[in-house]
Design a protein that fits this description.
single chain, 199 residues, alpha+beta, three-stranded antiparallel sheet, 35% helix, rod-shaped
Length: 199
């Protein structure tokens, strides 16, 4: 009985050792990194199967949905991306400008400032809806997928280039313009009322 168990243990150990040695010698036949669109992409069966990241990376498909990026100069602050986001990972604040403030790369006129344009990639589910509804195509998905951080707050990306001081200045300009318009309306209404009384 003991001899049978010993023979069985030696056989099992030899099988495991043989499999290990087979893989060690197969290291010379490394898998080559080929494009994911290749017909035989999933037929690579020989050699090392571990991708030696970051030296080696699997090819990223063109239609892959990864890290979001915003070209803030092309943003018209329409808020469509934030409204369509199913997980509310996009936060946008807007300040109405006192006039046209420029144009985007596609020729759209910009009339709103964006003092805040934050995307929390920790919440993002990479659905791509925000990129579809964007009228100026300023929000896109890049091929960046490795965003390892030690603090989860570092996954909130801030795309606005406006400082809090500049934002406050723009709010004051808007409030002043609105006050001037209101005063002009009241003066015009008063003038019309006076004219009616004189007649």
């Amino acid at each position: 009985m003991i001899i049978k168990k010993t023979i069985n243990a030696v056989k099992t150990s030899w099988k495991g050792l043989f499999l290990t040695m087979k893989h060690i010698f197969a290291l010379n036949k490394r898998r080559k990194s080929i494009d994911i669109k290749s017909d035989n992409y999933f037929e690579q069966k020989e050699g090392t199967v571990t991708v030696q990241y970051p030296g080696e990376k699997l090819p990223v498909p063109e239609v892959g949905r990864y890290q979001l990026h915003v070209e803030i100069d092309d943003c018209i602050v329409c808020d469509l991306c934030a409204k369509i986001c199913p997980v509310d990972c996009i936060e946008i604040e807007s300040i109405k400008a006192t006039g046209a403030i420029g144009q985007t790369s596609d020729g759209s006129t910009k009339r709103l400032y964006a003092p805040k344009f934050d995307i929390d990639m920790a919440k993002c589910l990479y659905c791509g809806l925000c990129t579809v509804v964007c009228p100026t195509e300023c929000i896109t998905m890049t091929n960046q997928y490795d965003r390892s951080v030690t603090n989860i707050s570092e996954l909130t990306y801030r795309f606005s280039d406006m400082s809090p001081e500049e934002a406050e200045e723009k709010r004051k300009e808007l409030a002043l313009q609105q006050a001037e318009r209101q005063a002009a309306k009241e003066a015009a209404a008063k003038a019309v009322q006076q004219k009616k009384q004189e007649e």
